[in-house]
Design goal:
- It is a single chain.
- By secondary structure, the protein is an alpha+beta fold.
- It has one domain.
- Helix content is about 55%, strand content about 10%.
- The strands form 2 sheets. It has a 5-stranded antiparallel beta sheet. Strands 1-2 form a two-stranded parallel sheet.
- It is globular.
- The model has no long low-confidence stretch (mean pLDDT about 95).
Length: about 230
């Protein structure tokens, strides 16, 4: 693997080191944290992991039975009501909305990074969560014993039906016919990270930041080649 030209060496090396385990929670967490490391040398993957551990502990310590439904209720209580994770509606295209450490610090972001916080905390609690590669608005699906719940983390943990997801996707894309299966397709972690990188490239394009576009593009190219 060639050394980066634009991306910082430490961020690049961490990102590359996670590609082989990207489909694990630790792998995607470290890879997305590596993206932020290029822009803030003070970012620490260990600190990010500890912050996620702390939130998960707040959830798990409230549940004696270990019931997945009880865990889910407390997960939403802690994330959305007590900590106040929410969508950044005032400055949606702020690049920091794509940086996991900043989302954890500021408790706001865009759908895809808020969804990642949800997944990483839920996974630590023993819950099964996958990302949904929904056009225009990333979602997650929580798989319980006898039920699947689609969650919009940008809207405070709102629960949606597949039909509601399809209707929203048609409004956002302008496409009048979208099959439910097309809008609730499970996203691989590779697709998840690729979409975060694409969001950043778009945000930097709006701000005319060619050097930052080049740095993020190097990570995007590494991911594309690896697969």
């Amino acid at each position: 693997m060639q050394n980066p030209i634009y991306c910082s060496q430490s961020a690049f090396e961490l990102f590359v080191s996670q590609i082989g385990q990207l489909e694990t929670d630790a792998g995607i967490c470290n890879a997305v944290t590596a993206i932020a490391m290029h822009f803030d040398r003070g970012v620490s993957p260990q600190v990010v992991a500890l912050e996620l551990d702390d939130i998960a502990n707040q959830v798990c310590n409230r549940v004696v039975s270990g019931s997945s439904r009880a865990l889910t209720a407390h997960l939403h209580q802690v994330l959305f009501e007590e900590l106040g994770f929410r969508g950044n509606t005032k400055n949606f295209f702020d690049p920091k909305n794509s940086f996991l450490p900043y989302v954890l610090e500021r408790k706001c972001g865009i759908p895809i990074t808020l969804a990642l916080v949800y997944k990483l905390v839920a996974g630590r609690c023993g819950l099964d969560v996958v990302g949904l590669n929904t056009p225009g608005h990333f979602l997650v699906r929580l798989n319980l014993e006898n039920e699947r719940m689609i969650v919009d983390c940008f809207c405070g943990g709102e629960l949606l039906s597949a039909h509601e997801v399809s209707s929203r996707a048609m409004m956002m894309t302008g496409c009048q016919e979208l099959a439910d299966s097309a809008v609730i397709e499970v996203a691989t972690h590779r697709q998840w990270v690729t979409r975060i990188l694409a969001n950043l490239i778009h945000a930097f394009s709006l701000e005319n930041r060619p050097m930052d576009i080049a740095a993020v593009s190097e990570l995007h190219d590494v991911l594309k080649v690896a697969y």
